[in-house]
Design goal:
Number of domains: 2
Number of helices: 9
Strand content: 5-15%
Shape: rod-shaped
Order of helices and strands: HHHHHEHHEEHEHE
Structural class: alpha+beta
Length: 388
């Protein structure tokens, strides 16, 4: 490893804390109290609707009982009117025979029983209604008075029966409309819940991608970090082995390489110009590194002033030398542009499978080759030496 390592500076730590703060605020904004508020309001609406529905059903049962009671009274009135008609028939029978007198007496007794039953129903009515006067219940009550009261009770209770029937029909219609409204509300709530669920899933996916981006990339330069570099190297090696096994050839027609880059003289920037300038230098040189390599290659910052380039495919060693020269030129150009005049680069190169037979040792072998360059004068590149 290079001896001069740029530790994470104060501005970098501030950027990291700022990123974490923005992530927390974004998470709180996305998953704030809106779903809970919507659920609470919807629940209150449902409870109010169910309470109103219960009251309507209770009123329907009450009106139904009133309607049934009015029907009982009307039945009693009809029976009393039938008994009154029988009395009239016996009274109009010709002659004054004993049989006629007995028939009238029995008919009057039957009428009295019917009137007593009717009076019991009317007097026990749960609603205010005309009461039968005691005179109409006497055995010798005038029949015309009985007829008058029977007509009055029949008219009153028939009207009451019609009113109760209309109320029941009206309230049943209200209940039906309310059930339709509640069903529509539940359907809307279901759609809203599905929408919120889908939105939350999208937000979670975005949030996880942000966290993954932060876990696999350097927060200052935006380059992949050491973890991302090794994951990409393993993926490239797996592809190489898959081609080697399935292609029928001894080895694939390409190789994999890692270039290890260390900035010479970078510590003087931090010591003389400050960490802010050092960070700006690292950011600027990282941008140039990304532009200088090929599209399929990966540039990573693996610590301080150390970088690595993963070359997924190459066929000739001269290609790696050209890439190393471009990387060194990027450092020199950045140094010249910022007017520092003391920074260069040492590059170590290791390739698989020709120089290193185990891809997991590529980074370490390239690091060793970079140290050889530093000991030999810096500002150059060298290839790893194959094991004897």
């Amino acid at each position: 490893m290079a001896t001069q390592v740029n530790k994470t500076s104060t501005p970098t730590r501030e950027r990291q804390r700022g990123w974490r703060g923005r992530a927390k605020r974004a998470f709180a904004t996305r998953f704030g109290p809106a779903p809970a508020t919507l659920a609470t309001v919807s629940l209150i609406c449902l409870l109010i609707g169910l309470l109103y529905l219960a009251l309507q059903i209770r009123t329907i049962f009450s009106d139904q009982l009133k309607q049934d009671y009015a029907g009982l009274v009307l039945d009693a009135v009809q029976r009393a009117e039938g008994a009154r008609a029988v009395v009239g028939v016996w009274q109009q029978a010709p002659g004054e025979s004993r049989r006629t007198a007995q028939g009238v007496r029995l008919a009057r007794a039957e009428l009295g029983q019917r009137l007593d039953s009717l009076a019991a129903l009317v007097n026990a009515s749960p609603i205010p209604s005309p009461r039968m006067p005691p005179a109409t219940l006497a055995p010798d009550a005038r029949l015309d008075a009985v007829d008058t009261w029977l007509a009055t009770l029949s008219a009153f209770w028939r009207a009451q029966h019609d009113v109760d029937s209309a109320d029941v029909r009206l309230r049943i219609a209200h209940v039906a409309n309310l059930l339709i409204a509640l069903a529509a509300l539940l359907f809307c709530l279901l759609l809203a819940a599905l929408g919120l669920y889908a939105k939350r899933n999208r937000q979670l996916v975005g949030q996880s991608q942000e966290f993954e981006q932060a876990a696999l990339h350097d927060p200052m330069t935006g380059l992949p970090n050491r973890r991302k570099l090794f994951a990409t190297l393993e993926e490239a090696a797996d592809n190489w082995h898959a081609i080697a096994k399935g292609g029928g050839a001894a080895t694939p027609p390409y190789r994999i390489a890692v270039l290890y880059v260390d900035l010479d003289g970078f510590k003087q920037i931090n010591d003389s110009l400050g960490h802010r300038v050092g960070d700006e230098f690292l950011i600027a040189v990282s941008r140039r590194f990304r532009v200088s390599v090929r599209k399929g290659d990966v540039v990573a910052r693996i610590g301080g002033d150390e970088f690595a380039v993963l070359v997924r495919e190459f066929s000739k060693a001269a290609e790696l030398g050209e890439i190393a020269q471009r990387l060194i030129a990027c450092v020199v150009e950045t140094d010249t542009q910022m007017g520092i005049g003391s920074v260069s680069a040492s590059v170590g190169i290791a390739s698989f499978p020709d120089l290193v037979d185990d891809y997991q040792r590529l980074v370490a072998a390239a690091d060793e080759a970079m140290y050889h360059v530093k000991r030999s004068g810096k500002n150059s590149f060298a290839f790893a030496v194959p094991p004897e």
